[in-house]
Amino acid sequence: MDRQRLRDEQRLHRRKLLTFPELRDRGVPYCRDHVRALVKQGKFPPPVKISTKRIGWVDDEIDGWVEQLIAERDNAQAA
Question: CA neighbours within 13 Å on the CB side: how many for 60?
Fold first, then answer.
């Protein structure tokens, strides 16, 4: 097994589901209603259903969303 594949598999095993309060720790400053609206518009990663009354967000997807916002800002400043 090559190193890249091993790293990819290890990363997949470390994935975590974030609760709504944990989104703030990842740089998401929005209220629940705004997050729902962004998900509906396709502008925010959709949650994963954990149980009938519980949802969570994949940590890698949230980190990627934050990185995308930063990249968009940096590209706008460079233009």
Answer: 7
- Calpha distance 2→74 (Å, rounded): 34
This prediction's pTM: 0.77
What sign does the dihedral 2-65-51-25 (CA atoms) show? positive
pLDDT tens string, the chain, 79 residues long: the values are 577 776 666 666 678 999 999 999 998 999 999 999 999 999 999 999 999 999 999 999 999 999 999 999 999 888 7
CA 47, CA 33: separation in Å to the nearest integer?
Answer: 13
Closest Cα partner for 10 from 54, 63, 60? 60
Radius of gyration of the chain measured on its C-alpha atoms: 15
